[in-house]
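Q: Could you fold this chain for me?
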Amino acid sequence: MQLIVLTTLTMIAFAANSILNRMAVDGAGMAPMAFAAVRLVSGAAVLVLLTRAPLVFKGRRRGIGVLALLAYAVGFSLAYGALDAGLGALILFGMVQITMFAAAVAAKEQMPVQRWVGGLLAFGGLVWLLSPGEGAVPLWPAASMAIAGVAWGFYSLAGKAEPDAVAGTAANFLLAAPLGVLAWAVIGGGLTPMGTVLAVISGAVTSGMGYALWYRLVPQLGASRAAVAQLTVPVIAAGMGAFLLAEVPSLRLILSGALVLGGVALSLSSGWARAGRS
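A: Sure. Below is the predicted structure, expressed as structure tokens.
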């Protein structure tokens, strides 16, 4: 029961990042780059306090992690100037899974037919969601979130080799934070009092503490259950957006979202079947 409660709280924290970013950028008038910079700085501060292992700042894995984290944070914040919370979370989540699927293909991992079918369904759902026509998604915000999803996919792949996930995340945040501040200084945009509070909550609580808790839960959940748990994030984000921000999901979002999440679930279920036979 404790594992279920903690996992639920963590998924709510992940979904809350979408709500907080949306409220700060679209509602409180904070510049997207300012939000990203404050989020990275506050996340770095909390993660440094939480980690007990020594921090490693060198190596190819660290370079990939830092650049991917920066691209994710910037793309995420820019997108939420126009996208609804649930829509943004669905694009992000779908692109993360597609990126990791493509990496598995590139690495010539054994891919069961069920995983191919699920991956193609998920990709088709995203193509439909982003295609022109009635209820079409704004192009540039969607592209920003897609870049954020690809970046988070690379970040996740790089993180698999971390000997201590929390320490690795703390090091990535520490190195990405000054780059985020530099990007903000170059691109410009102002802070607002409420937006800054929301960005600090996003960085320190729903990102920093949320990531630290998640890395402690993943070994208990196992890879498949952890992946399925994340299927709930776009749904939670859409529900929170409807309740807190009065965002009403379109029919296209509902149907394409069901296709994306169903395809990912089908792809993951091939892993369960293999695990049951082993």
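A (continued): Residues 272-278 have pLDDT under 50 and may be disordered.
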